[in-house]
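Design job #97: recover the sequence.
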């Protein structure tokens, strides 16, 4: 009986030893499993995106956007974050930043004067936002209503550039050409986005007709002066017709004209050259 009890005790001790060794091997000797940590690069990028809410002003928001976009692309290229993670961060960034960009653009469009530098900056920023794509799917990052609104910024600036170009096109070609320019200028001036842009409205409505009229009259003066060495009767007739056309329609087209006294001087000068150069 004592012999049997001793065997049982020995077996129990052996079993305990084996279990202890197995536990030791599993928990102590076996190399620990790799511990997963949060990606600090992603955390930083996400914090940058969220910081846009604290920096709504245009210049600060632009800086945060540029830095975060560059960092997401760079860290993706360095494999510090995945391409998919980069796409997700950039989409979050665009969706946070674009409303701030649009608000800044609206405030600028409501101003009394626009600058070439600001127009270029807004146009380039809108072009950048519209051109961003997911690296994984090649789908445009910006879509829906925000994309439409960003596109409208480009359209408004393009229209402004066309209107400004027209306002500066004051060279005289013909009375019909002047009439067309002035009517087109009136259409541009009706654009709701230009209602507060006093410099453009003044250039379109006031300065353009005045400059066209002035250049029209200068054109007539040059035509009359060239008659001093002209011996062609038909040319004299053409100049006389141009003077009459100005006299009849200038005030209607331009809203202003030179005085009848000025026109009489031109007519008398043309008549004098005709008499001097006519065959005796």
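Job complete. Output follows.
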């Amino acid at each position: 009986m004592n012999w049997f009890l001793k065997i049982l005790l020995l077996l129990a001790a052996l079993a305990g030893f084996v279990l202890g060794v197995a536990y030791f091997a599993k928990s102590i000797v076996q190399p620990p499993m790799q511990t997963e940590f949060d990606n600090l690069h992603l955390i930083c990028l996400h914090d940058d995106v969220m910081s846009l809410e604290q920096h709504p002003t245009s210049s600060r928001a632009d800086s945060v956007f540029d830095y975060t976009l560059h960092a997401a692309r760079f860290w993706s290229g360095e494999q510090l974050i995945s391409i998919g993670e980069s796409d997700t961060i950039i989409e979050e960034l665009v969706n946070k930043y674009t409303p701030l960009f649009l608000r800044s653009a609206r405030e600028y469009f409501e101003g009394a004067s626009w600058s070439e530098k600001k127009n270029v900056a807004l146009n380039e920023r809108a072009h950048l936002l519209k051109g961003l794509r997911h690296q994984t799917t090649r789908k445009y990052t910006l879509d829906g209503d925000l994309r439409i609104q960003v596109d409208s910024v480009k359209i408004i600036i393009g229209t402004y550039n066309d209107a400004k170009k027209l306002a500066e096109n004051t060279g005289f070609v013909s009375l019909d050409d002047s009439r067309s320019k002035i009517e087109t200028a009136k259409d541009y001036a009706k654009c709701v986005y230009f209602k507060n842009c006093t410099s453009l409205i003044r250039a379109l409505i006031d300065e353009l007709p005045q400059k066209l009229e002035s250049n029209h009259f200068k054109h007539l003066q040059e035509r009359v002066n060239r008659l001093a060495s002209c011996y062609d009767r038909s040319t004299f007739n053409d100049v006389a017709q141009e003077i009459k056309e100005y006299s009849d329609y200038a005030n209607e087209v331009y809203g202003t004209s030179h005085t009848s006294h000025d026109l009489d001087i031109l007519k008398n000068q043309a008549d004098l050259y005709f008499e001097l150069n006519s065959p005796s």
